[in-house]
Amino acid sequence: MSEAAHTSNDDIVAEADRAMESLARVRAEIGKAVFGQDRVIELTLSAIIAGGHALLIGAPGLAKTRLVDATARALGLDWGRVQFTPDLMPGDILGSEILDEGAGGKSFRFVRGPIFTSLLMADEINRASPRTQSALLQAMQERHVTIAGARHDLPKPFHVLATQNPIEQEGTYPLPEAQLDRFLLKVDVNYPDLETERRILIETTGVSEAEVASALDGPRLIAIQSLVRRMPVPERVVESIIRLVRSARPEQSEDAQVKERVQWGPSPRAGQSLMLAARARALLRGRLAPSLDDVEALAEPALGHRMALAYDPTGSAAALPKLISSLVAKVG
What we know:
- The chain is an alpha/beta fold.
- It has helices at 3-33, 38-49, 64-75, 90-94, 130-142, 177-180, 194-203, 218-230, 235-247, 256-261, 268-284, 292-303, 320-331, and strands at 54-57, 79-83, 95-102, 105-112, 119-123, 144-147, 150-153, 159-164, 185-188, 262-264, 308-309.
- The protein folds into 2 domains: 1-230, P-loop containing nucleotide triphosphate hydrolases (Rossmann fold, 3-Layer(aba) Sandwich); 233-332, Magnesium chelatase subunit I, C-Terminal domain (Helicase, Ruva Protein, domain 3, Orthogonal Bundle).
């Protein structure tokens, strides 16, 4: 290996060591405010440092807003929240032009919407109309908005953490599959265990609560996101991801359950998401390269919202998470 290659590898190792130290502090700071949700925190951070967005699915009162607030503070990012409702219009999120009348005459001025922030919480995104959903999701993909023919770039970094209530579905507009595909990971937020719930009751109903300190900032986060894309991926991990994604498609799978029950499978974007998230999770766990364990842990969050099962009238067939787990076991 040449001296330049050695130097480059040494630089990456040194940069990764600094990133791991910073990310450990970020996780510790978030943990001051969000209790017993280590997996949720890890998945959320994995999506962000991989450069993507996350969809948080859970019942009300499970600290999703608290998680976004704590994450923004720990990462040193400004953040905003939009409560989605059926009457919300695209301009309410993106911004709009208004007519100003001054000494020099009349002119249009662009007023930025709440999307112009580094971390946006889209609360109950499925309550907005398809028109409003598509406006937000287009901005998520392209990182800019176009108003009256003029382009307005969003801040860097820019990430969306959207929430969805799985219990109350009346008056909602479920996200189409093509729009779900814009989220790097789907994160299920579950109820806490007994000891965690006891801690929540004691520590969040007193006079004061722990303050979350900033452990990063925007430019440093962007540098870590760049590092994630430069991390090496072992060939066996690449092969595992490819085999897993292809085995989940009924047109290409050799699995009988997939052929019979899956209506459509994950696109190549699912493999890209899984590859990036695996690198991010490895870095969060203090490793320089992802392993098969990362693929296994991230398979359902990366693929679950990019697949659909055919209706089962008997109700006896395995749920999608279990089906994905079986595929992971076969390709691992």
